[in-house]
Amino acid sequence: MIAGALLGFVPGIPKVTLDPDVVFYVILPPLLYAAAWATSWREFSYHLVSILMLAFGLVGFTVLGVSAAAYWLFPGFDWRLGFVLGAIVAPTDALAATAIANRVGLPKRLVDILEGESLVNDASGCWLSSSAS
Question: Going by C-beta distance under 8 Å and a sequence separation of 6 or more, which residues neighbour residue 81?
Answer without folding.
Answer: 70
